[in-house]
Amino acid sequence: MKYSSSKENYIKAIYHLEQEEPVVSTNALARQLSTKPASVTDMLKKLHEQDLLEYEPYKGVRLTESGKTVALQIIRKHRLWEFFLVEKLGFGWEEVHEIAEELEHISSRKLIDRLDEFLGKPKTDPHGDPIPDANGKMPLIEKICLMDLPTGIAADIISVSNQSADMLDLLKHYSIEIGTRLEITNRFQFDRSLQLIVQGKSKITISEHLAMHLFVVYAKETGSK
Questions:
Q1: Residue-wise pLDDT tens digits, 120-170
Q2: Domain of 167?
Q3: 184: domain CATH number?
Q4: Is 83 exposed, middle or buried (0-12, 13-18, 19+ CB in 10 A)?
């Protein structure tokens, strides 16, 4: 079934909020979508009538299995388009989110499946987020937060949880992207900032706030698991 762009935006927003809390409040959804709680309530009633979510006034909402299926289809399209824009059209990873927000509403399943084949069935998007497969199964990618990386152990950046243009611009300033190898050389107790060696060359210091949004895997040659 084809849904309006507005309904799809609600479904996707609820899915992402559910990753933090099992029940999503109307106010949280209003903040996420930058709209008024009254408008949110009207849309939730419509989505409930279509069996896309469970909704009781003042008790929050959660997606039904049908709603989760729709959400994963939207996320699959969004992340495949981001991959295409970066890998095939040369966009920067900080440029593609808003464009993919528009492209994700293209409803052709045949187009998306062919896009997936054309791209070689990528497992992650340019920001390291997993791409659901055609059946809606999300790949499990093991990773740890940079703040939890032991000092003196080399690791590679695998994903970035904050994908705002400001955040990605800051990472560009530090020459950090997906696949960048780094190592923590010092931890400053005063503000929990980290001193890093990036790609075995540059020595930089980043804030705890930035580090909390960076996720890594141990570099293979270290033998760590």
A1: 999 999 999 999 999 999 988 889 999 999 999 999 999 999 988 899 999
A2: 144-222
A3: 2.30.30.90
A4: buried
